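help with this record:
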Amino acid sequence: MNVYVLASELRMGLVAIDWMLAVQIVNTLILFLVLRKILFKPVTAFMEKRENEVKSQFDAAALKKQEADQLISEYSHKIRNAEDEGKEIVRAAVQRGDKRMADIIKEAENKASEIREATQKELEQEKVKAINALKDDIADMAILTASKVIHKDIDGNKHKALIDQFIQEVGDTAWHN
């Protein structure tokens, strides 16, 4: 009858308060404590450990990202400095090239001036040589003409000296005019 009463009470949805309920409560408490000792604490410790690992990985990743951002900033700064240095090097090279070009032009102008002066001196010397040769030719022709006119041989050296003196006194004025 006891089973029948329990079955009827269960069918009605009521729980009987007796020693079975106390045993079930004690069993549930023991099961909870055992599971807590065996399962909950290790699982909780594992979860906390895993959570700490994930946090440390996130912290490490954030630190790495911060380091990467800092490196990017440093590298971009170095690139800008390198670009500025490159521009400065190019500017200095252009200035050196311009200076060298000016020096070469000046040197060429000086050489051209020297060549002109040397050529002018050479022309003057050639002119003097030509005038002297012409004077000698005139003196020789005058001696030849005078000797044919007189029909006798005149001392060439004395005659040439007389003609040179005449050319010097009269001829220089005529040649230069």
About this structure: Residues 26-119 form one domain.
